[in-house]
């Protein structure tokens, strides 16, 4: 059975796309294109699931909020 994960994607100053999977602690990757990023993200998720033994930590994304300081 497939499980869906939320992926946060950002772009850095050099143009690289960075993906983070909040539900899997430490699960992140980067790539120069979005297509490559999505493939690498799937690989990163699979590696994290292999480490966690299919039991991912009990976290979930609540939301994204901008904060002015």
Q: How would you characterize the overall build of this protein?
A:
- The chain is of the alpha+beta class.
- The chain has 1 helix and 3 strands, in the order βββα.
- A 3-stranded antiparallel beta sheet has the order 1-2-3, with helices on one face.
- A hairpin with a 5-residue loop joins β1 and β2.
- The longest helix is centred in the middle third of the chain and has 19 residues.
- The protein is flat.
- The model has no long low-confidence stretch (mean pLDDT 89).
Distance between the termini: 43 Å
Briefly, what CATH class? Answer: Alpha Beta
DSSP helical segment count: 1
* Rg, alpha carbons: 13 Å
**Helical amount:** 25-40%
> What is the number of domains?
1
* Biggest sheet character: 3 strands, antiparallel
Mean model confidence by pLDDT = 89
> Could you state the oligomeric state of the chains shown?
single chain
Structural class based on helices, strands and sheet pairing: alpha+beta
> How many individual β-strands?
3
Beta-strand percentage? 15-25%
- The name CATH uses for the topology is Double Stranded RNA Binding Domain
Uncertain stretches of 5 or more adjacent residues? none
Q: Strand order of the main beta sheet, please?
A: 1-2-3
Tertiary shape: flat
Q: Can you name the CATH architecture?
A: 2-Layer Sandwich
């Amino acid at each position: 059975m497939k499980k869906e994960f939320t992926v946060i994607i950002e772009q850095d100053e050099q143009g690289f796309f960075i993906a983070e999977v909040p539900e899997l602690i430490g699960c992140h990757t980067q790539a120069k294109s979005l297509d490559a990023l999505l493939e690498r993200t799937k690989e990163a998720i699979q590696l994290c699931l292999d480490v966690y033994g299919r039991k991912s930590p009990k976290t979930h994304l609540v939301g994204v909020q901008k904060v002015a300081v």
